[in-house]
Structures are given as structure tokens and as C-alpha cells.
């Protein structure tokens, strides 16, 4: 049974996620426990005509051992050849599939300064590669698999096997693998998201206003901003799905135009550390004050990464009654939690979210209001108490969301 | 119990195998099932002062899927960046630990031409890296772990868990991990091998003569040949152990000086295919005729890799009563089988086996009689029926081995 579902999931990742084309290289980032799925994905990728399938395995225990025992200076370095490898594959038109299953508690006893150093070193080394992907120069996709640590975090009262089986059920449900024809179901889902995207793109609101418990925020949108959601199209014209599951529609804010305060509604798992119960106060786009009940140091290191880490790069709307949200679970996994709640992201904006952005240099993007940073970190602010309004160019205030649900007719 | 043994094994690999020095990078090649050992090795390596520990994982099922499904042209390519990565680590003085656990039957239904193409592509891409290691410019070591497929091949009548446990026992025994102080035991073992090495180096035989069932071979040794065995010393002066276990003493033959016929005594697992019951006929150093009861095509592809693949690059002597041999098992794993029997190797010679060799260019090495090739493949010819004689420079014939045992007094 699981084997058949795994095959359907693999097929979905290959055909709908990265949408492998004949002759392409598929580069897979995979944690060790995902091996059974990765093998199915490799088979399906070759079936779809892939030339090479390269798997870059990772082991969270080796990661932990590094953070625990490596000398300080090692954490400031990232292997050049490993970064160059991704760039080489990207420049030759490869596709990138990441299997995402972070352990929320992995680094809880590690000094956040050590984690921050390593995160920054990796971000710097991988900057060129990540920029290519964020501009959709390559097809890429993010999917999840249960790992023992993640499953136990989501279902703490179950034993390990039960928790893993239950988490598989949830994953298969929200990625539509449990439906007869998942590929068809994704087509319908992408069409639904496209209708919301079209509505918002036609409106070209100049501001959004967020109102909820602890949240009172005004966000300016740049001229020519583009809402996106569901399927994306690479610069070579290949349609792919960057996230599975996905329920969001998103655009870029103007990097200098956010004012007010926002409070998170779900814990954020930042590189193996939890940040929760936090508020950010913005003035002219920049975080000028912040608090956190959990993970204050980790949040501080995130905000101090660089100039752009204190500004927003993405605003995303997700109805509170999304399938993932209805599960009433906290996943401690951004791929899931961001698609269960409206969210914002600190850091780099997607160049695809502004007209002509994928052909602009960084300076031009900055001038147009697109934020730049080594980081891009989503955090969840949606709930059944969130209201969102749009301000049109004529100054008219219109409801977009009420009590966490769409207030627009599409 | 296993955990404690794993820790001792890890410590041995780090301290005696690659002998990690402070500030070094340790690069580990590891199959997925070796994860528990690799984690212990990473801990011990950081304890010993390693700066970075990088693990390059491999999965034999992914390898099989590639050979089964990838397009033909893909098999002729090896990722440049992956080869460059090893070179970068090597040039910066890194140490290399390979965990070796090949599945003898992995590729038995794959066309040998496909396997040969991929093997050659990898050898070409990794040529610079492998040359560095064969000249001991970096510390390197090869150790083994049981995998389900390998364990079942060695112990076909046991169930999987029992076979794995039994194979661990054998590994711990032959690597001396079962002794109270394995590091001390290796010191004593290396001293014993050094006495044989000294004896043979003092003799400077000009020829060896092999005599056994199906074997009648004369091998010329080049002037200034060096016998080696046990611990090696890197060009930076670090003592390390390239193979664990190791029971051999070895030197290089003159590439043009082998004549006669030789028959193998144990099956050879060449990249996932078995070659067995084979004979090679040499004339002036070159294989001019060959037969094989099993794996004829695989042997043909090996011999056809390049000019040097038809000539010998190593001759090694192992007493028949070596600890590994006494287990009376066939391991289908060259690391074990070569240390259970006298053997020869087709292909590249170790530059360390001739005076001044590690500073010579390929042309000079060839001139001195050292063979060069993309391959270096050991095959076993020892048994309780093998006799080996040496011919001194004065033409005196002296016994070296009788009935597979040392006939020299050391
Ligand atoms: Zn988002
Ligand atoms: Zn985002
Ligand atoms: Zn050997
Ligand atoms: Zn050898």
C-alpha cells in the first residue's frame, strides 16, 4: 500500500513538481530516511527522460555532530566545490528537487551563534545558485517525507511507527496523492489558485492592511508587482510546481513600505531551532524592534544576518480553511505551516514577483523596491482572526480576507 | 556491545587508518547502511582535531537504477564538479576514508559494456585524485562494513540479521577491534610486516617465479623496486594504514617483464560483476590470451580499458595461513580476499614501490618499468599449493614461499 502511494508521490514530484524534460539532470537533496522515496523518484525521472540523477544525501546526526564538535572556524566555511557543483548543474539547465524533513529540535542545545555562522556561510556560498532558482531560471520543487524526529514532534502521543504512518497519511492527503489522479487534481488546484492570482493582479493594490491579535500592519506594494501561486513557469517556459503542497498566493512588498507591528501565529523552525511568540515592529520597511518568548537569540541572529534580513521580501495569503490548516496540526516545518496560514517572509524577494524582474540586476531590483538578502524566511501570521484589506490606487479600501477567509468573489 | 565495538572500530579508522591531524578535512565515502559507523567516525575525527568531516554517501540501489535506466550517453559522463571536489580536498591536504561494501551481485543483469563505460568515465575523471592517493600525497584508508547483500553472499545459509552479525564478528576479528588495545595490536602487526619488507628489500630479487595449479609465471622486478606492507608514510610524513585489514607485502613488477600463465584462486568482484575460473597468458609483460569460466565479457572490458590494463602494476605476497584466509570464507570483496591470498594487480603501479617514484612524472615512471593505467585491479592467485621463488642478481634461485607459507626466516 505504502509502496504504491510512494510511486504515485514520486511520479507527482517528477512530472508536476520539477517536470523533468528529456536530457535533463535531476539534482536531489535528500535526508537518509527518504531513501525508499528517492529510489522511486530516480526511476520515474529516468522514465521521463532524465539523463543524470544525482542524489546529495544528508544525515541530521552528522549535522548535529558537526555543530556540537567542529571547531568554530569550520562553521564559517562552506565547501566551494559543493556550491560550484550546484551552480554547474543549474547553468546546464538541471532541475532541483529538495526533500524537506527538518528535525525541529535538532540544534536546540547548540549555541545560536554557531548555527547563525554556518547558515550565513552556506547562504553566501550558495547565493548564486539560490538566486537562479528564485528567479525561476531552473525548475525546482520542495516536497516532504516523514522522519522519525519530525513525526514524533507532530504526533507526540503516538509511538514512532504510528506517528510516521500518520504523517504519511497527512502528506498524501495534502499533496493529493490519495486521489485517483493526483496529476489531474493538481491541474484543477492550480487553476483555482490562478483565478485568485488574476483577481489580485487586476486590482494592483498599492497597500495591504493586516489586522489581528497583536498585529496591526500596513504593507506597501511596489508598482508592477505580480501575484503568483501554484504552478510557476521557468525562463525556458517549463511549467513546474515549486512547493508541494501549496495553498498560498504571494507577491513582493516594497522593501521600504512596511509600518506597524506583527505577531506570529505558529512556531517558526529556523534551521533546527524554534522561534515562537514573537513580534516584529517595522518602520519604513525595517524591523526596529522585536520580542520573542522562545528563541530570542536565534531570531536576533536571523535579523542580524545582513541589511535585508530586517525587511520583508514576500507577503502570502492563505485561507484559514486550507486543507493543511484544517488538519489542526502544527507541523514545525515551514513547507506545511506556511501553506496553512497567511505569512510574510524576511529577506530576499522573488524577482518573479515584479514585472521584468527576472532580467533585472540586483541594483535595479532594489531600486524598484524588491528586497535583497542572504536569507528568505517565511513566518506565519494567519489565523481565524486575521483581516486583510487592500487600498486601491484611488484610495478605496476593500476587504480581501475576513476572519482568515477570502472576502473576495472569484 | 555492537555500539562499543563500533566506537573502537571508528577510533581505529581515525587514528590508525587515516591518522587525522589537527585542522585536516576528512572526506568519507560511505554507503547508506554504514551510517551508524560513519557517525562514530565523525565524532572521533573531530575529537582528533579534524576541521571538516564531509560524507559522500552512496546508495547501491540508486547505482543499480542508473545502470538499468539511464540513457547510454549518461554512462560515459562523470560529474566534473564531483571529481573537482575530491581534488580540492586532496590539494588542501585532506584525508580520505572509504567504506567499502560492494554487493557482488549488484550489476549481474546489466550489460558489461554499460558498466565498463561508467567505470572508465569515473576513472578518467578521478585520475588526478587517484594518482595523488596512490603516491601517498594524502593519507587514505579503506575499511569495510557489512551490508545485507554482502553478508548474505558470504553466509548464504544464515538469515539476514544473523549474517550481518557474523560478518561484523569477522571484521572485528581481522581488524583486531576484538583485542583489548587494537591500536597496540596494529603497532605489533605493522612491525611484523616491516620485518618481511626489510628482508625482501635487502634481497632485491631480479625475478620471482610462481608455480601452482594452472600457474607458471615469471615476473621481472625493476631496479630499485621497493617492497611495502602495513603502515605507509605520506609525503608530509604522516604514518597511516591504507587498508584495514592488511596482511600483504607488495611491490611493483617491471611492466614488460612478465611471462607465462596464471590462474586465479578466488572469484574477483569487479565493480558489481564476478569474474572467476580465469587464466591470463603473458608475453613480455602483456596479456596476449585469456579465458574465463564466469564473467568473460567483464574481464574482456577490464583488459580493454587501455594499454596498461593488460599489464601488471602490483605483485603481493600473503601467507595462506593469514587470519583472513583461516576463516575459510570467500568474501567477494577485494579488501578481504586480497588479504587472504597472494595476488597480482592489473593496471597502474604504486609510485611508492620504486625509489624516488613519488616525485617522478608518468613518462619517467614508465621508463623505469612502472605500469600506468586508468585501472588498478587486484586478483587472487594464492593457495596452499602456491610456491614462489626469487632469483637474485647473481642468478641464485631461493625459495620465498612453499605450499602457500613463508619459506624465509625472519
Ligand atoms: Zn510563501
Ligand atoms: Zn517564502
Ligand atoms: Zn595488494
Ligand atoms: Zn592493489
Automatic annotation (TrEMBL), chains A, B:
Answer whether the UniProt record assigns the keyword 4Fe-4S to this protein.
no
The processes (GO biological process) annotated in the record are: proteolysis
**Cofactor list:** Co(2+); Mg(2+); Zn(2+)
- Indicate whether Protease appears among the record's keywords: yes
Against InterPro entries, the record matches this protein to: M29_Exopeptidase, M29_N-terminal, Peptidase_M29
Q: Which family does it belong to?
A: Belongs to the peptidase M29 family.
Q: What is this protein called?
A: Leucyl aminopeptidase (Aminopeptidase T)
Q: Which GO terms describe its molecular function?
A: aminopeptidase activity; metal ion binding; metallopeptidase activity
What keywords would UniProt list here?
A: Aminopeptidase, Hydrolase, Metal-binding, Metalloprotease, Protease
What species is this protein from? Anoxybacillus suryakundensis
Q: What is the lineage of its organism?
A: Bacteria, Bacillati, Bacillota, Bacilli, Bacillales
